[in-house]
Backbone:
């Protein structure tokens, strides 16, 4: 191993975006090139990690280089190679500037290709700041004008976030933040991978999770009032969110492929739901007690006779993916569920997938405070009431804008259950004390 791979092998497992924690490494290789040779120099590395379990992943690691340690960058320090000191290139503000300079110039730098969308102003010369709450990607805000998401794990193919935003440009849908550009990297002998995605930053917005949970807090604070009587009622917002979701679905179906989905499609879907349940039960054994009920629910999907239209969808719609601005809701992050392969995330699906995702999110917003106070029947009753009220409002808004009431579809319940199964795996891995939220919902969904 080189001095740099030694450093990276030490540093990467401590990074929030690195999901391979706990897996034993069998090797690490990297290839890098300079994005900017000024001061600081900025390099970009493709780092390939192989695991003893046979798996392998490639990560994108931008670094900045300085001739002497800089105390102000201590939080971003990676280590020294000879006399040069390496820093996390996305947390060294000066090192974030060249990304937008190259986008404006539509440059090719080594294997990196910068593609400006050519529709709106890109804030050149401004440094970017990493947003808090980094998860599998790292996002930087540039001057409250643009936000760049850097995809850490490289997968061949166009990222659905770029693909969908690019396609939606022609529709001028008011519920989307415009794409400003994207960056790709060549992959040896294969399809290139998306490295970064630049989008207009939506200022003065509040995310749906924050708004919904403050409404729930207001309700919990009132001993005797019902959801429709409390000041922070969310139902009007939920209804407008339903309308916005339907509007985005309509435009997705206009600009991206659709397919008629009949008996064969339903049969395949039923098989996928069952396979996902089986895989999840191997990871979360608590799912086993709901398996029989869920199999009945999923089996019924295979019997649905009414054909539908499959189309591109959001794939992971929840309250944390929507922003309320002064003029309405904006839907973000069309990447799909991060745990699925890129090909699976680009498959055509029922738009009810997203409706189910948002209904699950109302359930989460209502119940997450119960994690701290389990067994309080009054709060549990109120949580149920809040979730029901907002589910109904969301579906009403969706129905008014699309002409189809999602609440009447036999598929909706099965897709809600499927999302809750996915959430069980997500929570078991990331927030074990929240596992009871999807498990409680599954007990209800599987029992009728
Ligand atoms: N265009 C935007 N304008 C304003 N804030 C944004 C924008 N895009 C993302 N954000 C903020 O960044 C957060 C993370 O963005 P997201 O695309 O969901 O990234 P991730 O895939 O890492 O979850 C969002 O919850 C939102 O608060
Ligand atoms: O990181 P992403 O935003 O792409 O999504 C993942 O993380 C989400 C949590 O941040 C997770 O969402 C689940 O928790 C939310 C509350 O934190 C809740 O509103 C969602 O309904 C629930 O699914 C999402 O599933 C996961 O893919």
Residues:
């Amino acid at each position: 191993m080189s001095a740099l791979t030694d450093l990276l092998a030490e540093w990467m497992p401590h990074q929030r975006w690195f999901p391979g924690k706990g897996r034993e490494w069998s090797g690490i290789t990297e290839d890098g090139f300079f994005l900017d040779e000024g001061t600081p120099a900025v390099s970009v590395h493709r780092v390939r990690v192989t695991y003893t379990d046979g798996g392998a992943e490639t990560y994108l690691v931008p670094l900045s280089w300085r001739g002497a340690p800089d105390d102000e960058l201590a939080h971003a320090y990676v280590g020294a190679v000879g006399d040069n000191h390496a820093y996390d290139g996305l947390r060294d503000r000066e090192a974030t500037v060249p990304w937008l300079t190259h986008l404006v110039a539509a440059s090719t730098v080594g294997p990196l290709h910068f593609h400006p969308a050519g529709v709106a102003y890109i804030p050149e010369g401004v440094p970017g700041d990493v947003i808090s709450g980094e998860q599998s990607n790292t996002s930087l805000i540039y001057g409250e004008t643009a936000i760049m998401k850097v995809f850490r794990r490289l997968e061949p193919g166009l990222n659905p976030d770029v693909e969908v935003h690019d396609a939606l440009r022609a529709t001028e849908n008011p519920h989307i933040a415009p794409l400003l550009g994207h960056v790709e990297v060549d992959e040896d002998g294969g399809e290139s991978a998306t490295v970064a995605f630049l989008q207009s930053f939506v200022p003065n917005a509040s995310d749906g999770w924050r708004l919904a949970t403050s409404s729930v807090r207001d309700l919990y604070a009132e001993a005797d009032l019902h959801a429709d009587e409390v000041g922070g009622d969310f139902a009007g917002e939920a209804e407008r969110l339903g309308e916005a979701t339907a509007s985005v679905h309509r435009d997705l179906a206009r600009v991206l492929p659709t397919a008629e989905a009949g008996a064969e499609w339903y049969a395949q879907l039923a098989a996928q739901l069952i396979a996902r349940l089986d895989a999840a039960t191997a990871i979360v054994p608590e799912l086993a007690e709901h398996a029989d009920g869920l199999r009945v629910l999923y089996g019924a999907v295979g019997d649905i006779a009414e054909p539908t239209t499959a189309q591109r969808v959001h794939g992971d719609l929840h309250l944390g993916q929507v922003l309320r601005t002064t003029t309405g809701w904006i839907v973000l992050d069309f990447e799909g569920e991060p745990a699925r392969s890129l090909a699976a995330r680009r498959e055509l699906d029922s738009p009810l997938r997203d409706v189910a995702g948002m209904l699950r999110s109302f359930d989460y917003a209502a119940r997450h405070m119960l994690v701290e106070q389990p067994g309080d029947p009054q709060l549990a009753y109120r949580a149920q009431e809040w979730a029901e009220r907002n589910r109904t409002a969301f579906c009403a808004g969706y129905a008014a804008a699309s002409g189809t009431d999602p609440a009447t579809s036999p598929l909706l319940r099965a897709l809600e259950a499927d999302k809750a199964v996915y959430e069980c795996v997500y929570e078991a891995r990331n927030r074990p004390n929240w596992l009871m939220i999807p498990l409680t919902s599954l007990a209800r969904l599987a029992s009728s």
Remarks:
- Residues 97-200 form one domain.
